[in-house]
Amino acid sequence: MKLEVDVKRCEGHGLCLQAAPQVLHHNENSEVVIDVEVLSGEALAQAEAAVRICPVAALRLTPKP
Amino acid sequence: MSKAPVTSDIDLFADDILVDAYPTFKALRDQAAVVYLPINNLYVLTRYDVIRAALGDPATFSSVKGIGFNPAVNDALQGTSLASDPPIHTQLRATLAANLTPRKLRAIEEQIVGKAEALVRKLVQGGGFEAMDALARAFPLEIVADLIGFTGDVKKNMLRWGQAAMEVIGPMNQRTIENFPIAGELYGWCSQVTANDLVPGSIGRGIFEAMDRGEIPPGSAGHIIHQYLGAGVDTTIASIGNVVALFGRHPEQFERVRQDPSLVPSAFSEVLRYYPVVHAWGRRVTRDVEIEGVLIPEGSQAAVLFGAGNRDERHYANPDVFDVARNPADHLMFGYGPHSCAGQGLARMEGHAVITALARHVRSFRLGDWAKKPTNVTQAFDKLMVHDVVGA
């Protein structure tokens, strides 16, 4: 699985940072940067939590082609 | 083949329900995920998953002519970010939220924290206070006034304008009728306010300057100010009152936050989960949609019951327990998806600042008399006495 961020929706609330510290971070403009390309195990669990927690539904998991 | 909807003969906006909705919410949630209320002509969504799914599906659950519970307020809100759908909504929302991003808010965070500290320290010295006026109303009014750059008479009107703007979202009952003229004063003021009315350097003044530079559409600055005031005052007041009430009713939970200030964000989320500040919020259903086998017909109005979803035992274990370590960051009180609260970053900053200041400067306190008045939308204490404050 792969985590994608819809940059038009993301407002930088940052809740995903606590949910998925292994998977993503904010750059200096409070924009999400995804650090892990292919997710499995703990990283996948964190990514799922981040998707659930994002208040503006800007994150989604897609099957890695 | 759809089932006929389960119905309930309650009036969602009856006085007794508005002052304590939780038994009703539990009964509705036990009945079904969707319950039709003939008295209100509303399909209410009662469980966490269906509420969240509806909020995430604006194509089916539209905000156009759908968020308020009377036609006059839906007409008045037309063209605002609140009452529009993507793609129009996307641009309006971006304009509204631009000054409320965490990056922008960082510039005023120190100021907000400092104000909470100063206010709480002063209250502790007095030994007791009425928490709604002295803290819950005083703090957000000052923050939002500074943010928008209000002075003088406008500042005096903020509380009644903010309350009225929420109240008129209800059905056309006596409360709504009485508040329409007051909400109209706010609308009128926002229609004619100019940059010179606002303090130089304030975010409000900045919105007008952005309009002059052509960065946002002509005429939109007043709308944005209107939404900051309409949405940002009454709700935050209610949630800060709820912080005091819940810590007072659960002193052992307050003690946990005092011992471990890293629980502050979790505690604020739990306050918003446990005592949601918005009673109900509408959506217009754009097509026949089936939820758990029940048809909601095209054109009907649905209402999300945040407080019912936030106490859904299908989603939260022991939902009626107030637990500051629960960290329910996925609670529904800021909504969800494209319309989720544009000011949630500011609201969190204010809530965290108040809880942090209380945990730092108050060792213990005792709740005294309290009062709640029925209000259509914002659920807040009206009075909340705090006694025997022991400083830390």
Describe the structure.
The complex is a heterodimer of chains A (65) and B (392). Chain A is an alpha+beta fold. Helices cover 28% and strands 22% of the residues of chain A. Chain A has helices at 15-19, 41-53; strands spanning 2-5, 24-26, 32-34, 59-62. In chain A, a hairpin with a 5-residue loop joins strand 2 (24-26) and strand 3. The longest helix of chain A has 13 residues, at 41-53. By secondary structure, chain B is of the alpha+beta class. In chain B, 51% of the residues lie in helices and 12% in strands. Chain B is built from 16 helices and eleven strands. In chain B, the strands form three sheets. Chain B has a six-stranded mixed β-sheet. A three-stranded antiparallel β-sheet of chain B has the order 5-11-10. In chain B, strands 7-8 form a two-stranded antiparallel ribbon. The longest helix of chain B has 25 residues, at 102-126. Chain B is globular, with a radius of gyration of 21 Å. The A-B interface holds A 8-9, 11-15, 18-19, 29-30, 52-53, 55-57 and B 56, 90, 97, 100-103, 329-330, 334-338, 340-342, 344-345.
User: How many strand segments of chain A?
Assistant: 4
Q: Quick one: overall form of chain A?
A: globular
Strand order of the largest sheet of chain B: 1-2-3-9-6-4
- Low-pLDDT runs of 5+ residues of chain B are none
Strand numbers in spatial order across the main sheet of chain A: 1-4
Please state the oligomeric state of the protein chains shown. heterodimer
Described by strand count, sense and barrel closure, the largest sheet of chain B is: 6 strands, mixed
The CATH topology annotation of chain A reads as: Alpha-Beta Plaits
Low-confidence stretches of chain A: none
Could you give the distance between the termini of chain A? Answer: 9 Å
Alpha-carbon Rg of chain B, integer: 21 Å
| Average pLDDT reading of chain B | 95
- Kindly name the structural category of chain A: alpha+beta
The CATH top-level class label of chain B: Mainly Alpha
Query: What is the H/E order of chain A?
Result: EHEEHE
Percent helix among the residues of chain B?
Answer: 40-55%
> What is the H/E order of chain B?
EHHEEHEHHHEHHHHHHHHEEEEHHEE
- The CATH class of chain A is identified as Alpha Beta
Mean pLDDT of chain A: 93
